[in-house]
Amino acid sequence: MAEAPKTNNPHAHNRFQTIRIPDPAPRPVKIEARDVSVIYGSKEAVHGISIDIPAQAVTAFIGPSGCGKSTFLRCFNRMNDTIPGCRVLGEIMMDGEDLNDHSLDVVLLRARVGMVFQKPNPFPKSIYENICYGPRIHGLAHKKADLDVIVERSLVRAGLWNEVKDRLHEPGTGLSGGQQQRLCIARAIAVEPEVILMDEPCSALDPIATATVEGLIKELRENYTIIIVTHSMSQAQRVSDRTAYFHLGDLIEEGPTSSIFNDPQEPRTRDYISGVFG
Ligand SMILES: Nc1ncnc2c1ncn2[C@@H]1O[C@H](COP(=O)(O)OP(=O)(O)OP(=O)(O)O)[C@@H](O)[C@H]1O
Question: For the ABC transporter domain, which residue ranges apply (predicted)?
Fold first, then answer.
């Protein structure tokens, strides 16, 4: 049964009703996505998805390769704008503000909604400069003393301070992969974002570095709204509060992570988490 479109997205032709399992205690909502479709040229990759993203919690997007997880994730900070021929329809509201509004400053939006990518991508600059670049261009601080405070605070929050405090002026690219990824997280939080998007942030890391980053994600949820795309179902279970299961561009089922993994309602969710396909 199709859900009635709530926006003017003519592509919101949901082929069935997403199964939604509420949290036992309701959480405040940070982002509301309604009837969001993403089209590359003439190919629709995401079909009229609606979901509420809870504040100060971790939401995991899971599903087989090519089901649209990353494409949908990029809608939350308008990164799809950078892809020629890509169109986003529907509505995404963050704290009541329309993120697709043409008058919105996307540079500011990307500071409010930071992103950590699959492959750590520090700037070819010092550890110190990696962190203070954002605060400087966004006018959060200019004086060295203020920047020093931001650099230390961000590296402490990212769990990296003790490892790098004596080498702040060495290149960020000289760190290990796991340290580089924590540097990228520190860089994202240096501009005081509200939301952090993580697109398979541990896929290039070894198990020890992965455990460190996962511990960090759990701590960061106290202050930030986090959305993580992951291929690791054990990672989704370890770090997330809610999980959304995608299949061929549709959102099949979303709910508390324990419900999705222990008592999935939809056969496709059940098959995926039990490893029938992926
Ligand atoms: N820049 C692009 N141009 C055209 N098509 C794209 C582009 N990026 C993604 N797609 C297509 O959109 C669909 C969804 O891709 P997306 O990368 O969002 O899936 P995903 O679930 O994140 O996959 P994976 O888990 O493999 O990263 C796929 O069919 C993909 O080929």
Answer: 31-273
